[in-house]
Amino acid sequence: MEAVLQTTGLTRSFTQGGETIAVLRGIDLAIAPGEIVALLGPSGSGKSTLLQAVGLLEGGFEGSIRIAGVEAAKLDAHDRTIVRRDQLGFVYQFHHLLPDFNATENVVLPQLVHGATRAKADARATELLTQLGLGHRLTHRPSQLSGGEQQRVAVARALANEPALVLADEPTGNLDEHTADIVFAEFVRLVREQGTAALVATHNERLAARMDRVLRLHEGVLQ
């Protein structure tokens, strides 16, 4: 079965003060459909840079990035946007919800961009939010939700278009330990139910142990 994500020789360097700093040093990575992979490493190890690369969020990288069978590293900006829209979902440490939209609307919007009808998008948003325990908070805006509830909405938004791969960067890093456990368990459950693959950057060894596989990034090298 073809990997959902495959990188070969992925490299990223920056120039600072006349000195070249290698952040990623030839990353070879493959994630199978439905596999949940933890990416562990200390701050500054390159975890976020790797997610930025495979999420097609910025350029300047060398090497190959294949997403759902498409060589994406060299696509132009328009085609990269289409791959992100159709194949990827994102969850960040901070939820980045639209403050003037309620929970349902925040999950509906990416579906409308994807081409869903409003009725279908509303039904999908309601289904996901209810599964995440937010059936009674559908019309609440982010400012009316707790941190854990806001992050649940972010999870629903990431999964709304049934992406092939979800990229999560410290998805519970802004939550207390108890809330983080609950939100992460719900995230894993929904990802598994949908058969979606996930790459989750974290520094939390305990959460990493609950995933299918653990990779470690140290000074730009995958171990």
TrEMBL record:
A GO molecular function held by the record: ATP hydrolysis activity
TM region(s), chain numbering: none
Keywords: ATP-binding, Cell inner membrane, Cell membrane, Membrane, Nucleotide-binding, Transport
Provenance organism: Sphingomonas ginsenosidivorax
Protein name: ABC transporter ATP-binding protein
Residue span(s) of domain ABC transporter: 5-223
The family this protein is said to belong to: Belongs to the ABC transporter superfamily. Macrolide exporter (TC 3.A.1.122) family.
Domain of life: Bacteria
Keyword Cell membrane listed: yes
GO cellular component: membrane protein complex; plasma membrane
GO BP annotation list: lipoprotein localization to outer membrane; protein localization to outer membrane
ATP-binding in keyword set: yes
InterPro entries: AAA+_ATPase (IPR003593), ABC_transporter-like_ATP-bd (IPR003439), ABC_transporter-like_CS (IPR017871), ABC_transpr_LolD-like (IPR015854), MacB-like_ATP-bd (IPR017911), P-loop_NTPase (IPR027417)
